[in-house]
Amino acid sequence: MILTESDKARYRHVGHLTVPGVFDSAQTTGVVEDIQRWGEEFLAELPAEQRAWYVDGGVTARAVLRKLDNPHHHRESVRRLAASPALVALVEQLIGSGVWVYFSQIFFKPPEGGGPKPAHQDNFYFGPNDVEGVVTAWIALDDATLENGCLYFGEGTNQGPVYPHEAPPGEPYNLQLPETILSRQPMTPAPVMRGGVSFHHGNTFHQSGPNLSIRWRRACALHYVNSHTFFEHPALPYDDSLKLRIT
Ligand SMILES: O=C(O)CCC(=O)C(=O)O
Predict the structure, then answer these.
(1) Which pTM was predicted?
(2) Cβ neighbour number for residue 234 with a 10 Å cutoff
């Protein structure tokens, strides 16, 4: 898949870009079935002290996972997505050739209560040696809409600095931008249909709303780096040994 000059200029200008139809429904269905299975196994074995990190507090009827880390390491289905020629060609057009997946996440955002993700910059979490060397490919495994909690972006914040983040008491994993900075920044919704990919620069402010609908909003976020970029001063621990070379 080839990006036009105007796509690339838009990405550089506003810090994100949506590309529809990168994956077909057989590809997204296969991944959804696999991660649902993995999620059930993971939840059954999750120690009590790690529940706050992974379980979505908004869902009261039964425990539902909020997220899972490093699916590219644990699941062949996600490795296939990460290495798919269409996706890799897009990533290389944004950050240059020779790319790795450094970290990845599944966000489940379950129906009727999947909680919001507060505004943050991935590059605060990752602390890369080169802020331009990181791009997140956020793959919509369901249609992501205003009702079920699509992403919102702070347009142009990729051109600004990485700000210090803060975490609510008892939630060290929930680092977020302070209200003093956010109050000056409008956030624009970016709905994506299933199979589409939303790319964002590591400095771009982004957040997602709660899932107020009866439909899932699952997504797979693959955090790619180029060949000279690594997480130099990360805010949370990341396991470098799980880095996956793609090209
Ligand atoms: O899917 C979400 O709700 C959050 C995604 C996110 O923060 C990311 O992909 O970096």
Answers:
(1) 0.96
(2) 17
Q: Which of 120, 124, 151 to mutate to test the pocket of ligand 1 (most atoms within 8 A of CB)?
A: 151
Which of 126, 176, 206 has the most ligand 1 atoms within 8 A of CB, as the residue to mutate? 206
**Of residues 115, 15, 129, 4, the one with CA closest to residue 58:** 115
Is 148 near ligand 1, meaning CB less than 6 Å away?
no
Q: What is the pLDDT along the chain (247 residues), one digit of tens a residue?
A: 899 999 999 999 999 999 999 999 999 999 999 999 999 999 888 888 888 778 875 445 567 789 999 999 999 999 999 999 999 999 999 999 999 999 999 999 999 888 999 999 999 999 999 999 999 999 999 999 999 999 999 999 999 999 999 999 988 889 999 999 999 999 999 999 999 999 999 999 999 999 999 999 999 999 999 999 999 999 999 999 999 999 9
Length of the chain: 247
Pairing of strands 134-140, 219-226: antiparallel
CA 98 to centroid of ligand 1, rounded, Å: 24
Count of domains forming the chain? 1
In a domain, 232, yes or no: no
Distance 207 CA to ligand 1 centre (A): 7
CATH number at residue 108: 2.60.120.620
**Ligand 1 pocket, residue 221 CB under 6 Å:** yes
- Whether 122 is in the pocket of ligand 1, judged by its Cβ within 6 Å, is yes
- Greatest alpha-carbon span in the chain: 50
How far apart (Å, rounded) are the C-alpha atoms in residues 31 and 142?
11
Boundaries of domain holding 180 = 9-44+56-132+175-218
